[in-house]
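Journal club side-thread
Mid-discussion, someone asked how the predicted structure for our own chain would compare to the paper's figures. Pasting it here so we can look after the session.
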Amino acid sequence: MDYGALSSGLLTGLREGVEAALIVAIICAYLARTGNRQHFSKVFAGAGSAIAVSAVLGVVLFVSVGELPAPWEQLFEAVTLVAAAAVVTWMLFWMRRQARFVKGDLQAAVDRALDQGSVTALAVLAFVAVIREGLETSLFLVGQANSADRGAIWVLLGALVGLAVAALLGVGFYQGSRRINLATFFRWTGVALIFIAAGLLSTAVHELIEIGVMPFGGQTLFDLSAVLPHDRVAGNVLGQFLRALFGYSATPEVTTFFVWLAYVVVVLTLFLRPMKSGPAPAAGSAAPART
């Protein structure tokens, strides 16, 4: 079992799944409170469709990478890894800024859908709300699977476990359970995702160096193979775990290492800095969520 790949997939599935589950729970709870439980099926249909589309896209991307000849496979893989790192970075900061207003915005959107009297409006609302999380998850998991060598299946298994746990938490959100601090949850899982994204980015740089697209900084910076190898050495688990989870390499190139370090320092600093109080919502707009 590749524990690093399993852990990285589980963390991604849990983090992204909780966001999607929270969105669906907020919509359903508001429908129940306003006496519109009969529309639950539309919400589930929209959310389920978004999940299906995201899964198909992920499979297509993963299979497409494996069928390309060298060096196009490495180049496409590097582009996928960079895109995954960029998407998760954008997602972390978007959620950090908008989390306070998500609940109010969703409730306002539900009101508009009900006022329109459209049978499909709620399904479309749920689809649009969940598809962003699903596409981000698919792209990020494809990047993790591509960088996990032979551990791709464990990334997928971990993601499924994480999504299952997120679904259970979604039921708890709907029932009004607040046993976990969502702000703390998103903060620390966000920190972990920053390190995972840094690993994806450094792996992309390594691929570019290998095929000669980046002809500088390919010298080995240091060699920790004798202490903590990253390959499948008998008895070595920690090195494999760190490689699958954070992109660790016992023999990193100069450029690879400094790209990893720069990303972690800059993004982590920006992510953990205190948030400035945003402007109050305009009159008639949705009130901030009190989660």
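Post-session note: Residues 280-291 have pLDDT under 50 and may be disordered.
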